[in-house]
Amino acid sequence: MARTADHEQRRRQVAEALMAVVGERGLARTTLADVADHAGVSVGLVQRYFRSKAQLLRFGVEHMYHRAEQRLQEVSDGPVSSVRDWLDRATETLLPLDDERVRELTVWLEFLPAALADPEMLRMHRETTRTLADALIEALEIAVREGELPADRDPRAEAVALIACVDGLTLHHIVTAEPFTAEAIRTALTTHLDRLFTAPESPRTP
């Protein structure tokens, strides 16, 4: 059991090093030697766990998505007062609002083009995104049933729009910078949810 735990710890150590190096240098300029050096281990040890750079990258993607899922699970396990409250907390975990998430999401932007050329990474990306979409759809359906969300809202369409909103804010915060500051993208997300949960005004009678 201890050997298995050590094995997994080593793999996580290498994955963390991959995140750091890709975040600093970009995916194209990252080598197994760079990752080994950052992790403080030999290239041979890295190759013992990952026989190719492609295998290492796939594990890095899986590691990154797992951490995002853990943050969402922590929100679900914690106290929430409403579906809106859960959505506020859950979607905020997806934004690059601290150094750790900035690094992870910078790497995510580097990985996306690579995923288009790697069927396994593309599968992981699509499955993770589909899982997120399903969770948002379910939450929005509950909000409609309980009268928290206006009845004219389409949970599936709104879930897709919400993911696109989060991804767009992430992209601009990391790549564009001003005016997409951390505070600005947090406010933009809140504004999007405010509009989503606001009932349309009744037409005025003449």
From TrEMBL:
Keyword Magnesium: no
Domain of life: Bacteria
Classification via Gene3D superfamilies: Tetracycline Repressor, domain 2
Residue ranges for the DNA-binding region feature of this UniProt entry: 31-50
Record carries keyword Transcription: yes
Domain called HTH tetR-type: residue spans: 8-68
Keywords: DNA-binding, Repressor, Transcription, Transcription regulation
InterPro entries: BetI_C, Homeodomain-like_sf, HTH-type_TetR-like_transc_reg, HTH_TetR, Tet_transcr_reg_TetR-rel_C_sf
Protein name per the record: TetR family transcriptional regulator
